[in-house]
Amino acid sequence: MRHGKRFNHLGRKKGHRSALLKNLSCSLIEHKRIKTTLAKAKALRKYIEPIITRSKTNTMHSRRVAFSYLQNKEAAKELFGPIAAKVADRPGGYLRIIKTGWRQGDGAEMAIIEFVDFNETYSVKDDTKKKTRRSRRKKSTQESAPAAEATAAVEETTEDVAEAAEDVTEETSSEESTEEEA
Question: Residue 131 above 70 pLDDT?
Answer without folding.
Answer: no
